[in-house]
Design a protein that fits this description.
The protein is an alpha/beta fold and 668 residues long. The protein is built from 27 helices and 22 strands. It starts with a helix and ends with a helix. The site of adenosine-5'-triphosphate has 22 residues, from helix 4 and helix 6. Keywords: ATP-binding, Helicase, Hydrolase, Nucleotide-binding.
């Protein structure tokens, strides 16, 4: 395109941007004035509140962030041009000025190709600098032109320095990612992706897409995002709000099951047993074993009347309720209701009247009925069930070996259920027990990130919350660091209750430069998992492996490396085995270098010191790894941990060591 023509086009696009911004402002003003008058037009206070909430959300959704471009692409289809952006913008007549990226038509922005142009003659991508439209890039699909991953704008987006929390990728979603983002709500999928292939990004955009397409349904049933720790959740916390989605629940696994305060701990062996799927059966058996055959009739004195229910009908009631396969507490309520029903029938027969509600209530609480229930279908709480099991694990019978029973046995059982000191793993048992007693409410859709680390019991906790919904499972088997981390996705999918979910690979890496990927990939054969290697889109990037002769100099050398890194743009992370973290923080303090903790996304500090155990899912421009041998030695799956650590760098990786490097790394 000649320079003058280019200028004219650019000017026209800027004008469209300005008028779209003005239109969005008007949409927001209208929403605000409706918000202000909402309580006057609503008939009652409940409607007013509902309307108020809806309008408040609408006003929020329509907020314009001057630093975020309102549109990032354009599709020319037949004679019309459609701008594609983060949300719909319409003019005063309701005509679209910007299409939401999730709208059906926008799909072609991500998927149209020369082979399958989908009616698109030209696809245009816009380049922005701080919300200012500065350039564009055209692909004339009708003339066989296609840029794919060589798009300059895509490259710039991938290579931009990282600061602060994660950003959305709406402008540059790739076709294979888009296919996952736009999968049907009914489809559960599992994404196996090497580090930096955009799994987290895909999961978050899929949540936003589903909310757009099934707004009413998912507003009721809700969407849940599960991440490994709070540092990770704060890192991703701003992505959905920038996409206009403010109503998604985000939780760590621990928070999902926090029914009781954690006041105790476990041995490594006990933890492993409590995460084992056999515990589900152990709990189930010990719960249902509490049901006993009725051996006495129920006799009730009711004023001048005497009611009696014989053993046989009571047996039938208990057997029938068992066969119905209901959760335990629901079954108990049903037994009580049926017993009261029999009393009611006797009363009706004898008195000729229907008993009142208060009579029914009295009968359901009357001592003979309650005593029968306590004998045959006793009241149980999750806490009482777990406390009983850990006090006397022999109730597990042949499901656990004698040694396993001893490993989970409480040395000092609590005197009361209330005073029990539960460990983090006990919370999973409590959650399982609660699921046996009552049904969990199911979310409409659950996204689980870093899912390779789910234990069977954790997977079951999620299964209970997605029984009637679908899931997006994201992970990388090579990054599995939990003792129970699986080497086969099917295992987890079975525990999640979605055994038939498709496992889809993502292999194009957007984060880690080629040289760094090559180093990390040396570890792959030693990790015992069968996963495709990542192909990096990034040809830039540096790698330095620095041996420090004197161990006592390593910390200081790390500080020097950080100082050098600060001469470049972007974020810097020091990643070390957990015990070294405080020492390194003190060193940085002494050197006057401001630094933050992971998860503190509001901190202005460019340097973060990150314990190796919480670095999953995070990324930094320059990563300084401190003593890989210590990171590996710190835990049984230390090599997997090192693989995670080495794949956090966006542009530069410095590996500092005074001990020999772990063996697989030295092989070339
Ligand atoms: N299509 C894309 N366009 C631009 N950037 C992208 C794209 N896909 C992913 N990225 C960027 O690549 C980086 C890695 O993405 P993300 O964190 O989602 O990967 P991941 O597969 O979850 O990685 P890990 O396994 O290490 O947790 C992020 O900065 C993300 O914004």
């Amino acid at each position: 395109m000649p320079a003058t023509e280019l200028d004219t086009e650019l000017a026209a696009e800027r004008t469209h941007l300005e008028s779209s911004r003005a239109a969005l402002r008007r949409m927001r003003d209208r929403a605000e004035s409706l918000f202000a008058t909402g309580d006057k037009v609503a008939g009652d206070s409940y409607t007013a509140e509902q309307l108020g909430r809806h309008m408040a959300r609408r006003v929020k959704e329509l907020a314009d962030d001057p630093d975020t471009p309102l549109f990032f692409g354009r599709l020319d289809i037949e004679e019309s041009a459609y701008h594609v952006g983060r949300r719909h913008v319409t003019d005063d007549a309701g005509e679209p000025m910007v299409l939401d990226w999730r709208a059906p038509l926008s799909r072609s922005f991500y998927r149209a190709s020369v082979r399958d142009p989908q009616g698109v003659s030209t696809r245009r991508r816009f380049g922005f600098v701080k919300g200012e439209l500065t350039s564009f890039e055209d692909e004339h699909l009708d003339r066989g032109e296609e840029l794919g991953t060589s798009s300059r704008i895509l490259t710039a987006e991938i290579e931009r320095p990282r600061v602060g929390p994660m950003r959305d990728i709406v402008a540059t979603i790739q076709p294979e990612q888009d296919e996952l983002v736009r999968a049907d709500l009914a489809d559960s999928i599992c994404v196996q992706g090497a580090p930096g292939t955009g799994k987290t990004a895909v999961g978050l955009h899929r949540a936003a897409y589903l909310l757009y397409l099934h707004r009413e349904r998912l507003r009721k049933s809700k969407v849940l995002i599960v991440g490994p720790n709070t540092a990770f959740l704060s890192y991703i916390s701003t992505v959905l709000p920038t996409l206009g989605e403010v109503e998604v629940q985000q939780s760590t696994l621990d928070d999902l099951v926090d029914r009781a305060p954690v006041r105790g701990g476990d041995s490594v062996a006990a933890t492993a047993i409590k995460h084992d799927v056999r515990m589900a059966e152990v709990l189930s058996r010990s719960l249902w074993a509490r049901i006993a055959e009725p051996t006495e009739p129920i006799m009730v004195s009711d004023g001048s009347y005497r009611w009696r229910i014989d053993i046989e009908p009571l047996r039938r009631i208990v057997d029938e309720a068992r066969r119905e396969g209901l959760p335990y507490a629901v079954g108990r309520d049903r037994v009580r209701a049926r017993v009261v029903g029999l009393l009611q029938r006797q009363s009706e027969y004898r008195t000729g009247n229907s008993p009142s509600d208060s009579w029914l209530r009295r009968m359901s609480r009357i001592a003979p009925v309650t005593e029968f229930l306590e004998r045959c279908w006793p009241a149980v709480t999750p806490e009482s069930l777990v406390v009983a099991l850990l006090t006397d694990p022999s109730t597990a019978g042949d499901l656990l070996t004698g040694a396993e029973q001893e490993a989970i046995r409480w040395v000092r059982p609590p005197r009361t259920v209330k005073s029990a000191k539960f460990s983090p793993a006990d919370l999973l048992l409590l959650d399982e027990a609660a699921g046996l007693l009552e049904r969990e409410t199911s979310f409409g859709h659950v996204v689980v990130d870093e899912a390779q680390d789910l234990s069977p019991m954790q997977a079951r906790a999620i299964a209970r919350r997605s029984e009637h919904g679908s899931i997006t499972l994201l992970g990388d088997l090579a990054q599995g660091t939990a003792p129970w981390a699986t080497t086969d996705w099917r295992d987890i999918l079975v525990h999640l209750g979605k055994p038939d979910a498709a496992v889809v690979p993502l292999t194009v890496g957007f984060r880690v430069p080629e040289v760094v990927v090559a180093l990390a990939n040396r570890l792959l054969p030693a990790l015992g998992v069968n996963v495709p290697e990542a192909v990096s889109l990034r040809r830039d990037g540096d790698l330095a492996v620095i041996g420090v002769a004197e161990p006592a100099d390593l910390d200081q050398r790390t500080v020097t490396e950080v100082t050098d890194a600060l001469a470049h743009e972007g974020s810097v992370a020091v990643i070390a085995a957990d015990p070294a973290v405080q020492r390194l923080r003190d060193r940085l303090d002494a050197a006057g270098i401001e630094h933050a903790t992971p998860g503190d996304v509001d901190s202005g500090a460019r340097v973060t010191v990150v314990p190796a155990t919480v670095v999953k899912g995070l990324e930094y421009d320059h990563v300084v790894v401190h003593e890989p041998a210590d990171i590996v030695a710190a835990e049984p799956k230390g090599l997997n941990r090192l693989y995670v650590v080495l794949t956090r760098a966006v542009t530069r990786l410095s590996v500092l060591h005074s001990k020999p490097l772990p063996e697989p790394l030295t092989l070339s």
